[in-house]
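Late entry, written up from scratch paper. The run itself happened at the end of the previous shift, but nothing got recorded in the book at the time, so transcribing now.
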Amino acid sequence: MFWLIFLVTLVLSLWATARVKATYHRYSRMLVSSGLTGAEAAAAILRRAGITDVEIVAHNGFLGDHYDPIHKRLVLCEENFYGQSPAALGVAAHEAGHALQHAQAYKPLQLRMAAVGITTYASQVVTFLPLLFMFGGVIEPMVGLMLMALAWGVIMAFNLITLPVEFDASRRARALLTTSGMIRTEEEAEAVRRVLNAAAWTYVAAFVTSLLYFLYYVLPLLTGGRSRD
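Output as recorded:
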């Protein structure tokens, strides 16, 4: 059963990642009629919202775009920072959407920020605890099951909270780009929608993965430690 879950989640993750890359590459070859870059679009969105304390910076990685709420920094890969494609504007506007969430104290974002620390510890548990199972007697099986179930439960909850945060940021991005005139045609709007929808599947895949592993470890506890097959 473990290997079945491993294979299913691996395929799901690879599919979601491949879909993001393929969709991004497709729509990064288009140019938006507004002529704006991703950085300019993000700056315009922040300016319209009255946010003046968020720095927009470029980095060399590919699709490592993110909003850092601790340092109030919006980080865009160079393709999106300087790019003038629907893909670049969509990603930049999505990250700007997170900055708006932060400024407006959006509850799911606050919960996710508060859960980062414990989720980091939980990730370490699911990574290193199985190694202890390889050495008989180091840890009791039921104790190990409880720790793994608890850790995967934390990760699952974090991934669940992440879903509304990401979906809301994408919704904001599409609305802000179209109402502001930064995206002007139906073709450009559809390109942005497809890029953001593809990216959303990576978060869905992460949640499904954590849910399956959580069930794998918690069900034996509910059945008195009987077979996990």
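Residues 159 and 206 are 7 Å apart (CA to CA).
(Scratch paper discarded after transcription.)
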